[in-house]
Prior knowledge:
Elements: H1 2-17, H2 21-32, H3 42-51, H4 56-64, E1 69-72, E2 77-83, H5 87-93, E3 95-97, E4 108-113, E5 137-142, E6 145-158, E7 171-179, E8 186-194
Parallel strand pairs: 2-3, 4-7
Antiparallel strand pairs: 1-2, 1-5, 3-4, 5-6, 6-8, 7-8
Amino acid sequence: xxxxxxxxxxxxxxxxxxxxxxxxxxxxxxxxxxxxxxxxxxxxxxxxxxxxxxxxxxxxxxxxxxxxxxxxxxxxxxxxxxxxxxxxxxxxxxxxxxxxxxxxxxxxxxxxxxxxxxxxxxxxxxxxxxxxxxxxxxxxxxxxxxxxxxxxxxxxxxxxxxxxxxxxxxxxxxxxxxxxxxxxxxxxxxxxxxx
Length: 195
């Protein structure tokens, strides 16, 4: 009976602490882990493809097979960018490129949104978006080209505020997600401008 009681207590503690596991993992990785992820960085492949070195043709083929990627180095984020009309399926797979957004590399507002908290921790793409600050770098690999942005603004708006999706007069990337973590009451918005 004591073992069952102990097991139930441990299970309850695990369930209560579950929402904080991504934060603990982020803290651990940034304080104690020095391991690098396996495989070729898609941004390195794209840079090789345009560099003119002897590996250029191989790199071009590998980039052609690479997914479109959003990268925010300060929070170790690399999420696939999903270009689709299906919001639900897109948000399950990565950062959703909102329909009618401006294209990457063009004037206007390119809008990406993603889950901040999801029952599957591998789908918490924007969980650490709150750690991004003005001046931080954001990179996008889109159809084999790299686009560089710098965060110009960080704000919280009402969950119904659609002004964050308005078109812009300059090349802009807007990222947004729910705020606070377990609520859709507000939106955490990161606005970045092309470098």
